[in-house]
Write a structure and sequence with these properties.
Layout (H helix, E strand, L loop, with lengths): L6 H12 L2 E2 H10 L9 H14 L2 E7 L4 E7 L1 H11 L11 H7 L6 H32 L7 H29 L12 H16 L2
Antiparallel strand pairs: 1-3, 2-3
Helix pairs in contact: 1-3, 1-4, 5-6, 6-7
Length: 209
């Protein structure tokens, strides 16, 4: 019996809802889209395609390729119905997974040098992601991408991801400057600058009430 579908199941099913793909093509498309906010390994995506077939949500067909045969996947009517039902449910609460934040939270068990290096690495990685995203945005503006009829949806995801990367870069730079004034990672307490930031954050939250 196939396992119960997850959000990743429906992410892959949603790509099949756009058009049929071979497994290779779908993974390549996921790298252009899902990867930026719903990252999953290639192995995970390949396995999910097989599970969709087991559930009757997708159909697998062997087709001739340039060098060898490939399997092409197509969404089934049952798959479209399941996807439609899922889109009508409440999404799970947002979750953030950033190892750089984890390193900061646990930094008092390491050295100031290690913390500084972790922040610099996170900043460098984020700037690289920003540059890759800029290339994608530039291509979208120039060519319209492979699905110009879906740009009203694509723009909204690109806009969020871009703002998130800029926010993370600012946070890294701000935290590096803050850490530079610490004598070490232990027993620093709430600095005047940190208190001011928390007070501003609290005030902004109250403004939205």
């Amino acid at each position: 019996m196939a396992s119960a579908p997850t959000a990743t199941s429906f992410a892959v099913l949603g790509l099949l809802g756009i058009q049929p793909w071979t497994a290779y093509e779908l993974v390549a498309q996921a790298k252009r889209s899902l990867h930026y906010f719903w990252p999953r390994s290639e192995a995970h995506l390949y396995a999910e395609l097989k599970r969709l077939v087991e559930r009757g949500h997708a159909h697998a067909e062997v087709v001739e390729g340039r060098r060898r045969q490939r399997t092409r996947y197509t969404i089934t009517p049952a798959g479209r119905a399941a996807l439609k039902d899922w889109l009508g449910t409440d999404p799970a609460p947002p979750a953030v997974e950033i190892e750089g934040l984890l390193r900061v939270l646990l930094a008092d068990q390491g050295t100031i040098k290690d913390l500084h290096a972790a922040l610099e690495t996170t900043a460098r990685q984020t700037r690289q992601l920003r540059d890759e995203g800029a290339t994608l945005v530039g291509d979208t503006l120039t060519t319209g991408g492979p699905f110009p009829q879906r740009l009203h949806l694509i723009e909204r995801t690109l806009a969020f991801y871009g703002e998130f990367l800029f926010l993370l870069i600012r946070w890294c730079d701000e935290t590096l400057a803050e850490v530079g004034s610490w004598p070490g990672t232990c027993d620093v307490g709430l600095t005047p600058q940190a208190r001011e930031r928390l007070e501003q954050l609290l005030a902004r939250g109250r403004e939205d009430l």
